[in-house]
Amino acid sequence: MKEYHSVLERCPLFDGIRLEDLGAMLGCIGGRTISVSKGQAVFREGDAATHVGMVLKGAVQMVREDFYGNRSIVAHIGQAELFGESYACAGLAALPISIVAVEDSKVLLMDCRRITVSCSNACAFHSRIIYNMLRLVANKNLVFDQKIQVTSKRSTREKLMTYLLNQAKLRNSDDFTIPYDRQELADYLEVERSGLSAEISKLRREGILESEKNRFRLLQKYS
Amino acid sequence: MKEYHSVLERCPLFDGIRLEDLGAMLGCIGGRTISVSKGQAVFREGDAATHVGMVLKGAVQMVREDFYGNRSIVAHIGQAELFGESYACAGLAALPISIVAVEDSKVLLMDCRRITVSCSNACAFHSRIIYNMLRLVANKNLVFDQKIQVTSKRSTREKLMTYLLNQAKLRNSDDFTIPYDRQELADYLEVERSGLSAEISKLRREGILESEKNRFRLLQKYS
DNA sequence: GAATGTATGTTGAAATTTCAACAGAAGGTG
DNA sequence: CACCTTCTGTTGAAATTTCAACATACATTC
To answer: What interhelical angle do B182-189 and B193-205 show, nearest 10?
Structure first.
């Protein structure tokens, strides 16, 4: 666990908690660490929404799959980021999405009630943690809003550009890598992979962007 | 204001606050009531995201509009529901959406910081309010997730059915009215109005649903 | 009650996406 | 190095959506 202290420190859930208090804090919350290998699910759609996860190592995705196996990717969750918190905090009975590891990962699982309900010994950190959780859940709304912004667009081209422009803004650079391969990007944008590839080629030919694998570079502002 | 006390009581933001304390509470939070007429914006995309609104009377929509005037409806906010809370709690500088009244409405505006940051006189209600806010923001995530579920579908038919089945589940009935007319429903589903009308007719002919204006009745489970 | 405006349904053509299939590139393995 | 697998790009046909235009129903206003 100690090896991941730097990750814990970076997670906004523990903002304002002093390093030396982190141990007690974790004891109070009662977390446990698990390992998941690439492709394995941490939570499955329909599972009880009681726990919050934090990515200590690796990365996971929020995904939804329908009858026919069509995969939809809702969000990418990287190191020091949380997942499941919104559903647990909302008191939802069953998870509407699955969480799947995209690489071999380590995850810290915490019972959400022990975070959001003040503990019996009313530890001093607790109100701070609740406040931090509020910010994090609110931030997850922004992540969802991003996805809505993208999928609200009608064409593959607009979806892609909306996503790329957002990424550029987030990274504060016109040159960046994305956490998705082509199929995953298609599953995030909700379009066909083949059509997406074709559109990327077209944008390249038109001199609007350069790309190589999952690295993109936007050459002009807008459109 | 007194006339809206019953609305305030119904809003989960004030869960656990006794009726007789509501007045003090509101003073502490410092809310003010405004009237907005149909079609008018309460907040505009780009506005500072500092305030939370509650619908006392009427209804509003979260909308986003692009250069070309294509309207996208993100959510319908009815009586006793909040808006803007996620963006304010996330500490976002500018709102990424607009809030527009869909009928003549009355709205209670509150400064979000005065809700989420404990006040100097540390009023007893405050920690409860923060906890309530956490639940509400988490719940807004579910509203967003609904929208994502709908717009993740590829065809007009699937989008419509996903929306209608969700509504039926929420209302706990196969017979329900929706808060949208055809154009608004199209703007929520992110499809063409004409194509949506055609699809509804088709579903009617196939005996899958009945509809009359904004009232729908699902005749079979699934598909 | 005539005129006007709004909402909804219908339709055919144009544009776009999806689907299926294949080819080349890159990486790992025996 | 041959073999296998995975990823990406390409392409043409089929399916679907968008677009534009119009018809109808209904409510409102003068």
So the answer is: 100
Domains belonging to chain A, first-starting first, are: 2-140 (2.60.120.10), 153-218 (1.10.10.10)
Please name the residue of chain B whose CA is at the shortest distance from the CA of residue A116. B131
Give the residue from chain A lying closest to B186, CA to CA.
A152
Nucleotide whose C1' lies closest to the alpha carbon of residue A200:
D9
Per DSSP, the residues of A44-85 read: -TTSB--EEEEEEES-EEEEEE-TT--EEEEEEE-TT-EESH
B70 or B20, higher pLDDT: B70
Mark residue A45 as left, alpha or beta (left: phi above 0; alpha: psi -120 to 50; beta: remaining).
beta
- Cα distance between residue B94 and residue B136, in whole Å: 21
Provide the whole-model pTM. 0.94
The partner residues of A162 in beta bridges, in order of sequence, read none
Among residues B202, B215, B207, the alpha carbon closest in space to that of B158 is found at B202
The predicted-structure confidence for A121-167, as pLDDT tens digits, reads as follows 556 677 888 899 999 999 999 999 999 999 999 999 999 999 999 99
CB contact under 8 A, A142 and B92: yes
Q: Which residues of B touch A (CB under 8 A)?
A: 64, 72, 74, 85-92, 96-97, 116, 118, 127, 130-131, 133-135, 137-142, 144-145, 147-149, 151-152, 154, 190
Chain B nearest CA to A137, separation (Å): 6
